Amino acid sequence: MKRDPDLHPPGWVQDVLAGQRSAIARVLSQIERGERDPATVAAALASHLGRAHVLGITGAPGAGKSTLVHALLGELLARGQRVAVVAVDPSSPITGGAVLGDRVRMGEHGAHANVFIRSVASRGHLGGLARTTTAMIDVLDAAGFDTVIVETVGAGQSEVEIMQVADTRLVACPPGLGDSVQALKAGILEIADVLVVTKSDLPGGDPTARDLKDMLHLRAAGPQGSWVVPVIKTSATSGTGIVEAADAIARHAAVAGRGQRLQRRHKPVPHEDAASRVKRLAAADPFVRWLGITCTEAAAGTATVAMTLAAHHLNFNGTCHGGVTFALADTAFGLASNSHGRVAAGIDAHITYQQAAAEGDTLLARAFEVSRSKKLAVYRVDVTRGDGTPVSSFTGTVYVTQRATP
Ligand SMILES: Nc1nc2c(ncn2[C@@H]2O[C@H](COP(=O)(O)OP(=O)(O)OP(=O)(O)O)[C@@H](O)[C@H]2O)c(=O)[nH]1
Ligand SMILES: [Mg+2]
Fold it and tell me: What are residue 152's DSSP bridge partners?
């Protein structure tokens, strides 16, 4: 007879649900080492998920994310919450010690019973870092933490995918226009629900806050419609702005809801539909055919295309013509942005070249969705050689029309 998993959950599930720290730590390590499959973890915990508010914090290296996490941790604990932190690839360990020590009485081993802090190295995850991190969030959610904070450095595809798992996305921008422009370029600003100008005790805090507000005006209304993205100045040295930041996070949680990652998970994924649509569009495009580009993989919001460089793709220096690389990246961008079945028209694109490619190289371009609202969507495309060496990165924005894809 098959046992009802809800009535007879495995031992590790019971221990996690009971909030047993050693069990939580063990399961997280097993997930990180690939010994527990994220899908199986999610299935075992399914009826206990969606209570925690997942707060994603991102920003450029050194932006002040960890310092902000420490301060928020103290504030949320003071508000009676249980808080877990997952730091992805931290450059310095988060211990919770220093800041917590002042405000909250610590238990033995320097660990407060209401705090759980965990680091994840970004390398070597079977099935991807975002999947690993999401499974860890599931465990901490089931273990009864009220808020799960995920800190990532705002660069790269995995980090963008991780931020998509969060219910509330906070982007940390230290003073200095350069950084905020960088954030915008990476499409990070587009996904922010709360913007924090960190280190606002340093010169340039006010202009940076103004720049960010200006940039927000250019941004299309997000999926949350009426939510106005607040710009909050914080300083870890004076402690200002932390209460305001925590308030803004709580307000956004109330508007956006919790467990958004689960809603996405439970939606029937129109994989087949999007994939066949994208392949059909690629096959129907004369320019794509003429360049010898083929679509190798596609799903809703993403497309991968490939081409092998022939003599007629080269420039006068004997390396791949920039226009060909652009055409390849742009093809992936066009296909991914049209994968949802609505005509999307490119309105802006940027490309950077990292390395030249030569005749005989096979180039792959993988486009993925950074954000999508009713009217605008942002995509990133990574162009690599067959062996994974980066060749080029591309960012593009489309205007999403009301028309169905022909
Ligand atoms: N003046 C000032 N310095 C700060 C503030 N917050 C952080 N810093 C300093 O900025 C540096 C980076 O801070 P972190 O919090 O480690 O930044 P991070 O974004 O987590 O860095 P990475 O994880 O390495 O990407 C440290 O030297 C901090 O002391 C602040 O509010 N004011
Ligand atoms: Mg950090």
Answer: 58
List CB contacts of 103: < 8 A, sequence separation 6 or more: 74, 77, 78
Indicate the number of domains in the chain. Answer: 2
In the numeric block, the tokens 């924090």 are attached to 196
Task: Supply the pTM of this predicted model.
Answer: 0.66
- Same domain as 211, residue 296: no
Share of the chain above pLDDT 90, in %: 53
Judge residue 292's burial from the number of C-beta atoms within 10 Å of its C-beta, 0-12 exposed, 13-18 middle, 19 or more buried. Answer: middle
Residue 4 lies in a domain: no
pLDDT at 220: 56
Using the atom order of ligand 1, give the atom closest to the CA of residue 153: 25
Ligand with minimal distance to 170 CA: 1
- Cβ neighbours for 190, distance < 8 A, ≥ 6 positions apart: 184, 219, 370, 371, 378
Contact 347, 398 (CB under 8 A): yes
- Find out whether the beta carbon of 152 lies less than 6 Å from any atom of ligand 1: no
Confidence tier at 276 by pLDDT (50, 70, 90):
confident
Residue 174 domain-assigned?
yes
CB-CB contact of 305 with 296 (8 Å): yes
Residue 135 in contact with ligand 1 by CB distance below 6 A: no
Same domain, 121 and 139: yes
Same domain, 188 and 56: yes
Residue 283: give its domain's CATH number. 3.10.129.10
Atom from ligand 1 closest to the CA of residue 238: 31
- CA-nearest of 84, 88, 85 to 32 is 88
- Domain ends where: 249, 266, 283? 266
Instruction: Give the domain extent around 100.
Output: 11-266
